[in-house]
Amino acid sequence: MSVAVLGAGAFGTALAISLARKAPATLWCRDEAHAAEMQASRENTRRLPDAPLPVSLTVTSDTDCFEAHDVILLAVPMQKMRSFLVQHRAALATKTLVACCKGIELDTGLGPVSVLREAAPEATAALLTGPSFAADIAKGLPTALTLACDPDETGKMLQSSLSTDNLRLYRTTDLVGAEIGGALKNVIAIACGAVIGAQLGDSARAALMTRGYAEMQRLALARGARPETLAGLSGFGDLTLTCGSEQSRNFRLGLSLGRGEVFDPSITVEGAATARATAKAAQVMGLEMPITQTVTNLLDQRLTIADAADQLLKRPLKEE
Ligand SMILES: NC(=O)C1=CN([C@@H]2O[C@H](COP(=O)(O)OP(=O)(O)OC[C@H]3O[C@@H](n4cnc5c(N)ncnc54)[C@H](O)[C@@H]3O)[C@@H](O)[C@H]2O)C=CC1
Ligand SMILES: O=C(CO)COP(=O)(O)O
Description:
Radius of gyration: 19 Å
Structural class: alpha/beta
Distance between the termini: 48 Å
Order of helices and strands: EHEHEEHHEHEHEHEHHHHHHHH
Bound molecules: 1,4-dihydronicotinamide adenine dinucleotide, 1,3-dihydroxyacetonephosphate
Helix content: 40-55%
Strand order of the largest sheet: 3-2-1-4-5-6-7-8
Shape: globular
Number of helices: 15
Strand content: 5-15%
Largest sheet: 8 strands, mixed
Number of strands: 8
């Protein structure tokens, strides 16, 4: 089975490096000059510096390469996935497509698998998600992720093909639970970064992680997910990583908000659009998601950090 990774950002590059340690792999980059530069220099200096590309990895900008691979890993940001699929519909229509992004589409409130199923209905849809920083995977550090796919037979094939000596995949058929966990942990990470940036303390962070997890479960269960999926790598696991590490771009955006600093808008931060999309969806579904709503208000400068903390603390007292 041959695998191509489409999208040469930090995560796509790291996954391609990991796969190429096991068997020849292809990394597709939309920018011809950047692809040629990586193929020659054996490094993606723009997105993942200091991570050498194995000789078994080919970098190309030629879309003809899509045809040659059975399994395609889609490592483009969430808000770009639909247009990417539409643009390359003919070449991707019947493939096994593994979404590697984390988020909720702003216009529709859908996660990556639902977007895949709408935009490429004949393809087999899967999701690779869970706690991992691109730099860690590229270094070959021990990592465990969730591979979500239905039918499970295809999931088993993907699990064995994409696992390596250092990258251990667990399998689930609960695509909804996996996509919601991966998307919403980024929103909670922004909130956690904000309290740490504003020096509100580690206890406040623990409160946000726990009550944020309750919001993740509320939305996931309302959409038909299984509770145990949220307790796994794609939910609890990724929440723990992202809310506790300055390697996370979502956490760092939160830190900037908390410190009153400007954040570089060119950096991919999936939690921002996801917060807005989720707050809207929760309202339509009649779900209480106060932390998500608060993050949206902070991002849109409708609240200060002090007012945000005050509002959350003053909500009516309730049972846990
Ligand atoms: N960086 C990380 O540690 C991890 C990232 N992810 C997820 O992976 C996804 C991608 O993130 P990163 O690679 O980190 O972002 P990035 O900002 O490093 O790279 C995004 C890449 O997508 C490409 N791209 C954007 N629009 C495109 C289009 N229409 N067609 C083709 N390529 C396009 C850009 O050129 C860029 O190379 C996100 O959803 C993120 O949450 C998941 C786990 C870890
Ligand atoms: O998804 C990630 C860790 O699992 C990467 O987090 P950031 O996108 O916040 O950097």
